[in-house]
Amino acid sequence: MLINTKFHGEINITPDQIWSFPKGLPGFEEEREFVLLPIEGNQVFQVLQSTKTTEIAFIVANPYTWADDYTFDIDEPTMELLEINKEEDIFVLGVLSVRQPFSASTINLQAPLIFQIHNRKAKQMILNDNRFILRYPIGNYPEKGAN
User: Fold this and answer.
1) Peptide bond into 101 cis (omega under 30)
2) CA dist 80 to 85, 104, 126, Å?
3) Of 50, 63, 79, 142, which residue is the least packed, with the fewest Cβ within 10 Å?
């Protein structure tokens, strides 16, 4: 299937690359299918691209790259929606707010993206936890993000 993307132009994707967000994303409830795309020459960041709307694409990264003490409980509705049985079933990404210079960018720790590996379902879960902030600074990412 061919899709138009914000950063990669027109690309061909296969059904097994699609992540289903059954309830969409907050503010983008009609956007239900996304793909994760690499950023050439960069192993830290990826693009979460809508398969439907070219302009809807988010830069995402592993939040543990910057906040190794990042921990939260997944609520029961999310566990049920994504059919999570064990921690190994999932991975977590955070959405960046990209700024200039790039080192001024931040990652959202207040609303992680939860991905269920086996059924390819995902959800952005809003945390009711004030330990982590909405705009966590990424700073000089090459040193921190190289692991």
Assistant:
1) yes
2) 9, 36, 16
3) 142
**Amino acid letter for position 124:** Q
Q: What is the pLDDT of residue 142?
A: 52
Stated pTM of the model: 0.92
Which domain, by its residues, includes 25? 2-144
Q: What is the DSSP letter of 138?
A: -
Which are the contacts of 146, defined by CB distance < 8 A and separation ≥ 6?
Answer: 44
| pLDDT tens string 40-85 | 989 899 999 999 999 999 999 999 999 888 999 999 999 999 999 9
Listing DSSP states for 48-103 in one string gives EEESS-TT-EEEEE-GGGT-TT---PPPHHHHHHHT--SGGGEEEEEEEE--SSGG
Express each pLDDT in 80-111 by its tens digit. 999 999 999 999 999 999 999 999 999 999 99
pLDDT at 64: 94
Joined together, the tokens standing for residue 45 give: 């960041």
Domain containing residue 89: CATH number:
2.30.290.10
Q: How far is CA 74 from the centre of its chain?
A: 16
